[in-house]
Design a protein that fits this description.
Elements lengths: L11 H9 L5 H10 L3 H8 L18 H45 L17 H15 L3 H29 L8 H24 L10 H71 L8 H9 L30 E8 L6 E8 L3 E5 L12 E4 L3 E6 L7 E7 L10 E6 L2 H16 L2 H11 L2 E2 L19 H4 L4 H4 L28
Parallel strand pairs: 1-8
Antiparallel strand pairs: 1-2, 1-7, 2-3, 3-4, 5-6, 6-7
Helix pairs in contact: 1-7, 4-5, 4-6, 4-8, 5-8, 6-8, 7-8
Length: 512
């Protein structure tokens, strides 16, 4: 028997008696030294809260653990009932939503992109219809969510709640397993230990009078048998508690696991919805929402023959080509400001003159001469070039005389005045060359001198004339300052169309 076994239960009086006994009985003394002298063993015997004490049991010997466990699972049944109610409402909401989604899908399916807009899938605003139609089709396919909730959640939780009711009844039926005699056995152990104490006191008082029945050794064996019965009963009860705890843990794990599965099923449905919605939003943002606001319009205008490309610039007159534009007979040999002396008045009138290969034309101004009719046109073959002013004259002029054989202005003399001697001499030289040459020679001259400008020609060398020109009162008037304000070079043709109202769409009522 080990030194700390069940037999080591002694009181202080027994310890004192054995310590004072003589050494005649060596075994008793040895027994006393080996069994009861230890102070720690005294504490074990007297401490009812010590795990080693025979007066202590680690398991409850009274109460109803099955009732507590049954009450706990009743709470779980209440939780399951509330969840089932919630999931039924979720199921109803999905059924209602499914009907709405089907309606939305039908409406979206009836939307047809007009032919004048970009078709779906071509990068236009109609791609939004295609994206939303796909989204609603997937949503209709997901309308089975309500059925999934019914099959995967509600049915499972309802079945679990019914099973839990049966398990609670089984738990309550286990209450008999916890009826025990541990307290009765502990009381019997107390009596046996007291008998051992009495036997030890008797031996301490008179060791020669002890009978075999009262031998402390046999009494101690009886105590150990009683302790064995107590521990067996206690361990049976302990295993019952352990089995109840293990079964309760396993059952609650099943309940919690099923609840987690229900939440997982719902979260899976919600996640699919969220992923689908996010994917649709991303497709909209990178597609129809990202295109330029005038993208559809640009494509419409570029593909419609009734409109022109807005990138096409306006044409100007100078850039237009047509047959005869560069023909020598239609060329402008010279153009500039001259003054013509009045036929009857002693004055000069300014005008813009253009010299062509066959005519000298007078216009009112240099502005858009193509839109003016000439004030006068002199046919050069009917004219004869007269005299011109000499250097140093106060008035720089030359004369054109109408031939007697001419068709118009027969025998009339025309006096023209320029702003400077050099300009006058240039006009004189040009007219002289055109009136004195014919055929290819004149054409060649025109090609060389076409579009020359007043004041830019160099003064010619000596030119024959009929003699000095007389000056009169008109020549005393200086060259007209107002006339000099007329630009000496013809302006570039104005390509701006005449002012007229343009078609305008008023947007004030739809501005955002």
């Amino acid at each position: 028997m080990p030194p700390d076994g069940p037999g080591a239960v002694l009181n202080d009086d027994a310890k004192a008696g054995l310590s004072s006994s003589s050494g005649a009985n060596g075994q008793a003394t040895t027994l006393g030294r080996g069994r009861i002298v230890d102070h720690e063993e005294k504490m074990v015997v007297g401490d009812e809260d010590n795990i080693r004490s025979i007066y202590f049991t680690p398991v409850p010997t009274t109460g109803a653990p099955t009732e507590d466990l049954a009450d706990r699972f009743q709470v779980w049944r209440k939780v399951l009932k509330d969840l089932i109610t919630y999931y039924r409402d979720v199921q109803l909401s999905y059924e209602t939503r499914s009907k709405s989604i089907v309606k939305l899908s039908n409406v979206m399916g009836n939307i047809v992109s007009p032919a004048v807009l970009l078709a779906e899938g071509e990068g236009g605003i109609s791609d939004a219809n295609h994206i939303l139609r796909d989204f609603h089709k997937r949503s209709v396919a997901e309308s089975s969510k309500a059925r999934e909730i019914e099959e995967d959640v509600i049915v499972q939780l309802t079945g679990l709640r019914a099973d839990l009711y049966q398990k609670i009844k089984e738990i309550k039926n286990l209450s008999g397993d916890f009826k025990n005699s541990v307290e009765k056995e502990m009381e019997a152990t107390r009596r046996a230990v007291q008998g051992l104490r009495d036997a030890l006191q008797h031996v301490d008082a008179d060791p020669n009078t002890a009978s075999a029945k009262q031998d402390p050794f046999l009494v101690r064996l009886a105590v150990e048998r009683q302790i064995e019965r107590q521990i067996e009963e206690e361990n049976y009860l302990h295993r019952a508690y352990l089995n109840l705890e293990g079964s309760g843990r396993e059952l609650e794990s099943i309940v919690v696991g099923e609840i987690q599965k229900s939440y997982n099923a719902l979260s899976g449905i919600m996640r699919r919805e969220a992923d689908d919605a996010l994917d649709t939003v991303e497709r909209l943002r990178t597609g129809p929402l990202a295109i330029a606001k005038d993208h559809e319009w640009r494509v419409f205008v570029e593909d419609n023959p009734q409109f022109i490309d807005p990138k096409l610039s306006l044409r100007n007159v100078e850039g237009i080509e047509y047959p005869g534009k560069y023909h020598h007979a239609a060329a402008e040999v010279r153009a500039g400001m001259l003054e013509r002396k009045s036929k009857y008045l002693k004055s000069y009138t300014p005008g813009w003159y253009v010299l062509s290969p066959t005519h000298l034309h007078e216009f009112k101004s240099a502005d858009r001469i193509q839109s003016q009719n000439p004030v006068m046109s002199l046919f050069l073959p009917d004219q004869k070039l007269g005299t011109h002013s000499q250097p140093g004259s106060s008035s720089h002029k030359f004369i054109l005389k109408g031939r007697q054989s001419g068709a118009m202005h027969r025998g009339h003399s025309w006096v023209f005045r320029a702003e400077s001697y050099e300009t006058m001499l240039s006009w004189y030289r040009e007219i002289k060359s055109l009136t004195e040459t014919t055929g290819e020679e004149r054409n060649a001259y025109v090609r060389r001198h076409a579009r020359s400008v007043s004041g830019q020609s160099q003064a010619p060398g000596s030119i024959d004339s009929d003699g000095a020109m007389d000056e009169d009162e008109a020549d005393e008037t200086p060259y007209s300052a107002a006339a000099s304000s007329i630009i000496l070079e013809p302006p570039k043709p104005d390509t701006t169309p005449a002012e007229r109202p343009l078609p305008v769409i008023v947007l004030s009522r739809i501005d955002t």
